[in-house]
Amino acid sequence: MDIDAWLWWLIGAAALGIALVITAMPELGMLAVGAVAAAVTSGFFGGGAVAQVVVFAVVSTALIAVVRPIASRHRAQRPQLATGIDALKGKQAVVLERVDASGGRIKLAGEVWSARALDAARTYEVGQEVDVVDIEGATAIVM
């Protein structure tokens, strides 16, 4: 019993897909798409072995050449929407208890936070507005 070439290409595409899931290497997914293109070349167009290999190589290379740089740029960008403590950095807060280098309390985003001054020589009095520079654990660093 002979297996047609297009079926071998689909088996190869499935194997590459499984390897993609296991390793999380997107290039394997692009190679799998190339294998599917080669299967289509064999099954629907009746292309020979050389045509199948050429289609596999061209589609795989084109996908890697086009998609990979786009994915790299996308991965390097910071998220547009800040969440969690990143969303609190740069916000203004109101001092509830005197804040200095050793501590104090502020009202930040409707919640009471412990805080300390970024500059050890500075002191912030009750009612004063401060800017949140960073969050360390449950303590806001203000200036």
TrEMBL record:
Keyword Membrane: yes
The keyword ATP-binding is assigned to this record: no
Organism (species): Streptomyces thermospinosisporus
Domain of life: Bacteria
This protein's name: NfeD family protein
Localization: Membrane
Residue span(s) of domain NfeD-like C-terminal: 86-142
This protein's UniProt keywords: Membrane, Transmembrane, Transmembrane helix
Lineage, highest ranks first: Bacteria, Bacillati, Actinomycetota, Actinomycetes, Kitasatosporales
Membrane topology, record value: Multi-pass membrane protein
Positions of transmembrane segments: 6-23, 53-71
